[in-house]
Amino acid sequence: MFPSSPDMGGLAKNTSYKVVLPFYIYAALSFLVATFLLFFSSSAFVQNYFHPQTLAITHVMALGWGTMIILGASHQLVPVLIESKLYSNTLAYLSFVLAAIGIPFLVCSFYTFYFGWQAQLGAILINAAVIFYLINIAISMVKSKKENVHAVFVFTATLWLLITTIVGLCLIFNFTHNLLSQDSLAYLPLHAHLGIIGWFLLLVIGVGSRLIPLFLISKYDNKNLLWWIYILINIGLIFFLVNFLYIKIDWLYFLPVVAIFISLLMFGFYCYKAYRDRLRKKVDDQLKISLLSILMMLLPLSSLLIIILLLLFSIDDSSLILTYGFCIFFGWITAIILGMTFKTLPFILWNKTYHSKAGLGKTPNPRELFSNKIFKLMAVIYLAGFILFGSGILLTNQLLLKISALLLFISAILYNGNVFKMALHKPKEV
């Protein structure tokens, strides 16, 4: 518990920071690498969306940035959701090590567009990491013997993640072994949306519906609404899967999109009610960025609706597809992480350093472990870079892409600076 931070409750009471911190560090460095590659490969974003450099950057963002930080944070958050300890720190370490080794192998293979043993090994290691994580979460939930809608979101999202990585593994082997009936490019939309909707969206809503009221100090809770959101997302995803593999009628894709859209409106309503009923009237900058990310969910969804309409008229607009992917990974997911990192990591590291000293003297507030000025500067530069780069893709403007990519790279440097400032924090005498 945090005596000076009642809004965090018991967020860091179970899992050791030694388990969580490596994931955060790896994710921070991945964000830096992704924006570095983006700067030197910005021209790829005015070409085909299957460009090797675009694929490499996408997988750095999806796996190294988004997935790694979610895995790390959830090792801390799931025990809180289920009110029980994480089953195994060893499985958590194994999950980290396997993913940390597998991701570079896979990304380098995409960048060079060579799908030999390196790509296959990378995909196998990533799948093994997800399996260890799933086992850890599943046993933790079973041992807790408490049903919790937020935990069900996380568990189901992890199942979709495993399906996503298995499909990805098949696509990698399909490049050299003709494993599937069509080429790997044909299955790319399936692989992408299983991960985006099944993994990222389902998990973000499951965790966000718990953390946002917590950070706002809001008593609002509506389990029935969350269950309806859960059902709509999964029904939409299953229908998409069936239509993609068996029915194959383009206009039917509107049905899962509508289901996802309704679920997002319901989640937005949930967040609004939590915001309206909050006890803490002043909302800090970190949470504002995370709340903004909820609105950002509508950007890729709007792009997807336009893409489906274009497909019905047999129009393949690569710039719109690239914008869609960019809005997801550099917009929605990144905005969530930028905000939530500085709402969770400071308390985890504060707990490691000062928890045993609380009450013995004056200790710094968790928010003092990072620089709020740097955070604000990072947020402004990031938002400018995001808006300009998205515009650059649509306008196919190379100069605009290069300038905005530089802004995103600078925001990643500032993010890393703040993360390492916290990680290397020296305890003060109390």
TrEMBL record:
<feature type="transmembrane region" description="Helical">
    <location>
        <begin position="374"/>
        <end position="393"/>
    </location>
</feature>
<feature type="transmembrane region" description="Helical">
    <location>
        <begin position="196"/>
        <end position="218"/>
    </location>
</feature>
<feature type="transmembrane region" description="Helical">
    <location>
        <begin position="292"/>
        <end position="315"/>
    </location>
</feature>
<feature type="transmembrane region" description="Helical">
    <location>
        <begin position="321"/>
        <end position="342"/>
    </location>
</feature>
<feature type="transmembrane region" description="Helical">
    <location>
        <begin position="399"/>
        <end position="420"/>
    </location>
</feature>
<feature type="transmembrane region" description="Helical">
    <location>
        <begin position="225"/>
        <end position="247"/>
    </location>
</feature>
<keyword id="KW-0472">Membrane</keyword>
<feature type="transmembrane region" description="Helical">
    <location>
        <begin position="90"/>
        <end position="113"/>
    </location>
</feature>
<protein>
    <submittedName>
        <fullName>Cytochrome C oxidase subunit I</fullName>
    </submittedName>
</protein>
<feature type="transmembrane region" description="Helical">
    <location>
        <begin position="253"/>
        <end position="272"/>
    </location>
</feature>
<keyword id="KW-1133">Transmembrane helix</keyword>
<keyword id="KW-0812">Transmembrane</keyword>
<feature type="transmembrane region" description="Helical">
    <location>
        <begin position="151"/>
        <end position="176"/>
    </location>
</feature>
<dbReference type="InterPro" id="IPR036927">
    <property type="entry name" value="Cyt_c_oxase-like_su1_sf"/>
</dbReference>
<feature type="transmembrane region" description="Helical">
    <location>
        <begin position="57"/>
        <end position="78"/>
    </location>
</feature>
<feature type="transmembrane region" description="Helical">
    <location>
        <begin position="119"/>
        <end position="139"/>
    </location>
</feature>
<feature type="transmembrane region" description="Helical">
    <location>
        <begin position="21"/>
        <end position="45"/>
    </location>
</feature>
